């Protein structure tokens, strides 16, 4: 009898797991509310500075896209920081902390930023396209967490692609993780220099190791790389690099690093399969072994997140398009994140099913 009953139970479990990988049809019930409604803030990178939670995100605006570049619908022109004294408390939307016109080298597309703090200074790291249409990563500094920030005159030497995320290790060393394929241009850097002829089709190498994100330790003044960026190698359970055709697990964009119980957690978006995945390792440089899914697909094409500890609990900041139902107008949200006793992360479902 047990055997006969176990078959439908297995089938039901598989079907349920399948349902949880896509947003529900119709009018979904969202599990978490947008942090703010007066501005579209995406790609939320959260930090606790001096006891207050600050969220550094992209400021989405509704402007006609250029149609000559991938990702051109994302035309952001400034950064507006969010802050709150606790999760669930009132959220302040600060005035723009940095504007495109105040970044001497940048031409367009202020995409997903991040920030760090040391010795009374705040450092905002951000990608933007230069006048040649090449994504670079810049840094701007200020003496308040919400800005205003003053941009360095040039991008970080040797920087490229998008989505910088700065992690502070226990010894105070800071590492920048970055990169994004397709519109993020990482595929154009495989030779070590920018190659505009490398397009989307050059990513179709299903049986070869996937393009991997990058990491570099920051210099003491936090304005440059202290070393040439290295690949962050992502492995499967058997210790082999994730393959380009492994769309459910390979890196696309939105790198993030956090450390829990002495273990390094590298999390990222799988892009066209729309999950936030994670991998763990013993060093900030990796390699990292794929472990599972942090966040199942949200409403909207992009997914991007950060993970931070505040008030003794862990939080996942992410975005979706609940308020607009349009790909490029996104809202930041927050959910509690649980590390299980065995170190695995309990998957967050952004919908009530
Ligand atoms: O916000 C623009 C881009 O969309 C980000 O840089 C990516 O991570 C994706 O969220």
Q: What do these coordinates show?
A:
- This protein is mainly beta.
- Helix content is 5%, strand content 36%.
- The protein has one helix and 25 strands.
- Strands 8, 9, 10, 11 and 12 form a five-stranded antiparallel β-sheet that branches. A five-stranded mixed β-sheet has the order 17-21-20-19-18, with no helix packed on it.
- The chain starts with a helix and ends with a strand.
- Beta-L-arabinofuranose (FUB) binds at residues 42-43, 58, 74, 111-112, 162-163, 180, 253-254, 302, 304.
- Ends: how far apart? 30 Å
Gyration radius from CA atoms, angstroms: 20 Å
Q: Bin the helical content.
A: under 10%
How large is the share of residues in beta strands?
A: 35-45%
Question: Tell me, what's the shape?
Answer: globular
What oligomerization state is this entry in? single chain
Q: Can you tell me the residue ranges where pLDDT is under 50 for at least 5 consecutive residues?
A: 1-19
Question: Main β-sheet: number of strands, strand sense, barrel status?
Answer: 5 strands, antiparallel
The helix tally amounts to 1
Extended strand count = 25
Averaged pLDDT: 93
- Which small molecules are bound? beta-L-arabinofuranose
Q: What is the N-to-C order of secondary-structure elements (H for helix, E for strand)?
A: HEEEEEEEEEEEEEEEEEEEEEEEEE
